[in-house]
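Milestone M4 deliverable, item 7.
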Amino acid sequence: MRRMCAALVLLCLLLSGCSRFVVQEYETVSPHAEQHVAAVDEDALTAQNYLSLKNAILSFVENGVENGVIRTRDYSGEVEEDLAAAAYEVSKLDPLGSYAVDYMTHDCARFVSYYEIHISITFRRSVEQIRAIRRVSSNAALPELIDQAMAAYEPALTVRLSYYDGQDVEALVRDYYAFNPGKAMELPDVTVNVYPESGYVRIVEVLFAYSESAESLLQKQEAVASNVRAAGEYVRYRSTGAGKLGLLYTYLQERFRYTPGLSATPVYSFLCEGVAGDEGCAKSLQLICEQIGLECYTVSGNRSGEPYCWNVVNVDGGYRHIDLFRALAEEESSLPFYADGELDDYYWDREAYPECPDDEPADAPVDSEESEAVEADGETGEEMEET
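Output delivered:
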């Protein structure tokens, strides 16, 4: 009887131990399996071949994703070999990757029926910079985009385009500055970067370095426009071109005792601060001539062997050279008009500007009746804005 009781006790103990063992195994394995499934599915892209693998990596770059996960599904090819090739192609050969990625690392782990790939990207561009890239089909759109960027004094322009042939971006910047004296207050320093070094499609990054903020330059632009309008108002009673230019010269003489000097914003410095240079004088005269309806060109040439600017103006039907900076520096009593033959120490591209022949009258007297009309009206126009 005792032996039967001992056997029953031993059997109960063994059965009790087995029960605890089975429960413990279930509790440790099942939760682990659930956690693994959740980690795999979360935020993972899928790839079936090399192209879809490369596009998945590229999507991380496009969206500024620093750490991304890709899972293979029925993959055709060697995953590990394709992964290395795709990561290299995206980061080094693709235009966006070449522009935006500093470096990229990757690893993959094989499970029963798929690979899980982890991509880590260190960017050298922000998401905002990536999204700011302008997409155009050809070089033909580049000049207009540069004009738009310079009109707003933007610090950078980034363009993705096809058939890039090494267009002279710096020349486009100089052209905009030269032909828009009322809009381009400063000629910026320009840096051009192209990504990648070769290829059918490339990203061109243009960096504009201004000495002042965009807000400050826009304020100066408004001040210049105000002063140009005031100058045009001042000479509005003159009916001849010579009469308007003569009165304008007198007005400018009374504005400041001009100080010769160089400036990053030459037009503003001349019209608003009294700092005179050949470029500022020539471009200011062009703006005022446009305001009062006179045909005028700013000539970029040389004087005494040095780069120099002056104007060619249509004065009552005949073209004449006008050197406003020289007239102010030499304190001429009236504004001289020159023919081509009178500019011995000047050099310019004569085919690029109208001819100023010697047989045309170099000067036209101010009409006394016009002077009386101004005095009778009692107005001499708005005063130019001083800043």
